[in-house]
Each structure stands twice: as structure tokens, then as C-alpha cells.
Specification:
The protein is α/β, with parallel strands linked by helices. It has two domains: 186 residues, Rossmann fold (3-Layer(aba) Sandwich), CATH 3.40.50; 76 residues, UDP-galactose 4-epimerase, domain 1 (Alpha-Beta Complex), CATH 3.90.25. It contains eleven helices and 13 strands. A seven-stranded parallel β-sheet has the order 3-2-1-4-5-6-11, sandwiched between helices. It has a two-stranded parallel ribbon with strand order 7-10. Helix 1 links the parallel strand 1 and strand 2. The radius of gyration is 19 Å and the shape is globular. The relative contact order is 0.14. It binds NADP nicotinamide-adenine-dinucleotide phosphate. The site of NADP nicotinamide-adenine-dinucleotide phosphate has 26 residues, from helix 1 and strand 5.
């Protein structure tokens, strides 16, 4: 089976490429600029998903039966300041994939976010009301709606605060600073359900294999403050937690508003395909 992965140089895209390759899929990875994985045995192509002609050329040449759209503008503050760029990449670019996918009966997998919710309630189910508080969330919700309305065979996977113990992600960036003795100010009143990247990739593999449709929430299901997430890791690495200071959202001047509690419930994935993710302590105990 041929799978085309967009955003192949991103944090998630790179992991998807390697795990789909390992599971014997015929992988066509695409991304901005040069390939940022050194060793693999699949095709990599430079592709800006905003280019209609380039996208069509790649689709016609490689004829995938599955597309996983992991490309996005993910810097939430940049999205707030550059709204037309954000909408173009995160939503309008779908016009370059959806009609072809409908015509060719492609299973279209869209990676979405907990930021489609306003964060007032927390513990969101798939069919809860969406009401994004920033432009990034708005663009991702517009994308979801475009996909749903189109009639394409889709799965929309909403995830939250992805992490790994290596590579460039929010956690490793914080840990690097602590090791350099830099004091960190971390919000203690924003709650997320952190997601170990391998659990997300495993869920995507299952959703593809079982040809699942509809919206799925994929996270650990464990709601924690961002402050507690970082402290937990730093403590377990025998590093200095005194360098981590808690700060409240109102004292952090961010360009884009963040949802206070965007935690995702994962009961649907548990019921539909026995999704059993690791929580933070499982990951710490097993891998640190
Ligand atoms: N990370 C999280 O905590 C999180 C949480 C919820 C949802 N998500 C969703 O998960 C998906 C993957 O996110 P990620 O964490 O892997 O983010 P990422 O590391 O920023 O990856 C996104 C990739 O998309 C690429 N991209 C940007 N504009 C593009 C364009 N015009 N054409 C082609 N590629 C383009 C970026 O290229 P460059 O590398 O060159 O910039 C980047 O490699 C996104 O849909 C995101 O909304 C992520």
C-alpha cells in the first residue's frame, strides 16, 4: 500500500515516515526543503502543499492509496500574526488534495488539534462543540470542516502536546535549557493531555489499517498542567527543578490566546480499536 505523507520533515512527519516504512508501506514522503532524515529507504520529494500544480504532479505520478496530512504551520503565535499565510497552509491547501482523493477513493488522514476547543470545559469528546480561541485553532477547525463537507473518505485525528525524549519538541527544548542552567517560566494554569509520539503513530497505523472514518481524539487521556509535565521530567532526570518557576497565563504575554484546559478524552479510540497509550509516568519509568 502506498502512503503519501506531507510535512515529512516535521516532528510527527519524520516519525510517521520511519514507522510506516517499518510496517512495510510504500512511503512517499514530502516536505519543505531538503530531506531532514539521513538514512531511510523510501522516496522523499520537496513539496509545498500550497502549490496546486506540484501537488497534482506528485499525486498523479505516485498514485497513493492513503494520504496523511501532517504538514501545517504550527507556531501558534506566528499564525496569529500571519493569518493569511496560516489559513493558506493549514486549510486552503486541502483543495490540492481533496478533489483528487475523492476521485481516486483515497483514505485521507488529517492531523488536527485540541486547539479547536476553547478550553473552558476540558475533557473534550469528539462531538463536543468547537470554538477556537486563536487563529491557529480556527484554521485547523476550518480544515476539519472542509474535509467533512467534501465527502472524502476521511479520518481526522485530534492530538495534544506531542512529546518524545529525543529530537526537537517542547519537552527536549525545556530540558536542554535546564541543562544549560537557564531559569524557565512555565504556565501552571493551562492543562493538556500530553501525547507520546509513538502512541500517536501507532494509533494512525491502526486507523489506516482498519480504514477507520470520522474524528478520533488521540492523547494519553491524562490531564496535567504544563508546569507539572515539565517538573515531572526534570525531577526524574535528577536535574534541578528549582530552575523551573511557575507562572500564570495572565502574566505570560503571548501573541495568541491559549485554551486553558483543552484536555482530550480518548474513550472512542479505546472502544473502537483498544487504544492503550502510555501516560507520562509510564514513559518516564520505561525510558528515562
Ligand atoms: N506538536 C504538537 O504538540 C501538536 C499538537 C496538536 C496537533 N498537532 C498537529 O500535528 C501535525 C504535525 O505537527 P508537528 O508537531 O509535526 O509540527 P512541525 O514539526 O511544525 O511539522 C509541520 C511540518 O509542516 C511543514 N510545512 C509548513 N508549511 C508547509 C508547506 N507550505 N508545505 C509543506 N510543508 C509545510 C513544516 O516545514 P518546516 O519544518 O520547514 O517548517 C514542518 O516540517 C500538525 O497538523 C499539527 O497541527 C501537533
Amino acid at each position: 500500500m502506498k502512503v503519501l505523507i506531507t510535512g515529512g520533515n516535521g516532528f510527527l512527519g519524520k516519525e510517521l515516515r520511519m514507522q510506516f516504512q517499518k510496517n512495510n508501506y510504500d512511503v512517499i514522503a514530502t516536505g519543505l526543503g531538503k530531506d531532514r532524515i539521513s538514512y531511510h529507504n523510501h522516496i522523499y520529494l520537496e513539496l509545498d502543499i500550497q502549490s496546486p500544480s506540484k501537488c497534482l504532479e506528485v499525486l498523479q505520478k505516485h498514485q497513493p492509496s492513503i494520504i496523511i496530512n501532517a504538514a501545517a504551520l504550527t507556531d501558534v503565535d506566528r499564525c496569529q500574526l500571519n493569518q493569511s499565510e496560516c489559513l493558506s497552509i493549514n486549510c486552503d491547501s486541502l483543495n490540492n488534495f481533496i478533489p483528487y482523493s475523492i476521485e481516486n477513493r483515497i483514505h485521507f488522514i488529517q492531523i488536527s488539534t485540541d486547539f479547536v476547543f476553547n478550553g473552558k470545559k476540558g475533557e473534550y469528546k469528539e462531538n463536543d462543540f468547537c470554538d477556537p480561541v486563536n487563529y491557529y485553532g480556527f484554521s485547523k477547525l476550518e480544515a476539519e470542516n472542509k474535509i467533512i463537507k467534501s465527502g472524502v473518505d476521511y479520518a481526522i485525528i485530534r492530538t495534544s502536546l506531542l512529546y518524545n525524549l529525543t529530537g526537537n519538541n517542547f519537552l527536549t527544548r525545556f530540558i536542554k535549557k535546564i541543562k544549560e542552567n537557564v531559569e524557565l517560566k512555565i504556565v501552571d494554569d493551562q492543562y493538556r493531555t500530553p501525547t507520546y509520539i509513538f502512541d500517536l503513530v501507532s494509533a494512525i497505523l491502526i486507523i489506516v489499517k482498519l480504514k477507520k472514518n470520522g474524528i478520533y481524539h488521540i492523547s494519553s487521556g491524562e490531564s496535567l498542567s504544563i508546569f507539572d509535565i515539565v517538573c515531572n521530567f526534570v525531577k526524574n532526570m535528577d536535574s534541578n527543578t528549582s530552575l523551573i518557576k511557575n507562572i500564570s497565563t495572565k502574566d505570560l504575554s503571548q501573541k495568541a490566546i491559549r485554551p486553558i484546559n483543552s484536555s482530550l478524552l480518548i474513550d472512542k479510540a479505546k472502544k473502537d480499536f483498544n487504544f492503550t497509550p502510555m501516560n507520562l509516568n509510564d514513559v518516564i519509568n520505561r525510558f528515562l
